[in-house]
Amino acid sequence: MTISWTAAHVAAIPSSPIVIAPIADKDFAPVAFNLGIWDAWPIQRRDGAPFANAAGGELWMALGAPRFDDPDARHGHARIHLLRHEDGGWSDLGPAMPDGFSPGSREWSGSAIVDDATGDVILYFTAAGRRGDNGLTFEQRMFSARASFGDDDRLADWRDLCEVIPPMPDWYMPTTGGGAIGTIKAYRDPAYFRDPADGRHHLFFAGSLAGTASAFNGVIGVATAPADRPDDWTVQPPLIVADDINNELERPHVVFHQGRYYLFWSTQAHVFNPKGPIGPTGLYGMVADMLSGPWHPINGSGLVFANPHEVPAQSYSWMVLPDLRVTSFVDNWGGGGRKRRFGGAFAPFVQLWLDGDAAGVAA
């Protein structure tokens, strides 16, 4: 069932929404010298729990690139890095996939799970552009690939590269056109979820609605696979549609909590239709009793929480974990001044609370 996120929902955002705490320089540290990271996700079990190595450390992935004077330049150099999180600190294990393996010129966001049947890691990711592109293009394709654990938690023997969500032009707009940051069309960010009710597998992703006249046509799409055939994916029509409202419903993902399904996404103020209404940069979501819906906006509007008013772009790309911890990265932090201050590091985790259709930040 397709549900619309409407102007009435966005207009219902209170003038003083729930906000997260301001970030100071003492609150974060780079993962590695001259490496900026942003969108991040843990390697998870199929039930959503983060995977831990033999020593109890968590293994994560994040987009990473060298630091540039213009932070937006990082998108043209993005690689998925493998990270280890232990004893409260982060260490960079380098690019997760070997050079030349990805079919894209860059690697954008996705998700990763451990296959209980084989012990392999399955990575779902976005290939941006095509390897060998002459110039920067914004075509996006979604792939899966398998790897085995090697020495020192690194991943080896990458194989079984497959375009897991093929183009569906009747529902989702192609991404072969040009564009600038914030205006390009989406077919990216595959996020895995297994439904505890029936064992079926799902990949949620960010897309753009086909067949609309509006430039603000963001949607959340989904592909499904039977419980006993987890690699047999079928692409479905859009689940959430923000036509004429918002251009990008980024990094959608689902958390099952106390018998309900919570579908979260991130979006930024500058990708709302300027004709309004306009919401703040923040974490948004809907809730349902079944994955098929109907879905209802959390807090009546869809906004879960926003950045502080004085630093409206301080963090971004939130991901809610099953224990309701929320990770993100430090974006333009510090407020004031005209120079952009890109953090490029993990922001402090936020603890969420959920109660039916309501949500907020734990004190």
Automatic annotation (TrEMBL):
Q: Which GO terms describe its molecular function?
A: levansucrase activity
Q: Where is this site: Transition state stabilizer?
A: D189
Query: InterPro entries per the record?
Result: Glyco_hydro_68 (IPR003469), Glyco_hydro_beta-prop_sf (IPR023296)
Q: Which Gene3D superfamilies match?
A: Glycosyl hydrolase domain, family 43
Residues reported to bind substrate: S109
Gene Ontology biological process terms from the UniProt entry: carbohydrate utilization
* Family note: Belongs to the glycosyl hydrolase 68 family.
Name-wise, this protein is: Levansucrase
Species for this entry: Sphingobium yanoikuyae ATCC 51230
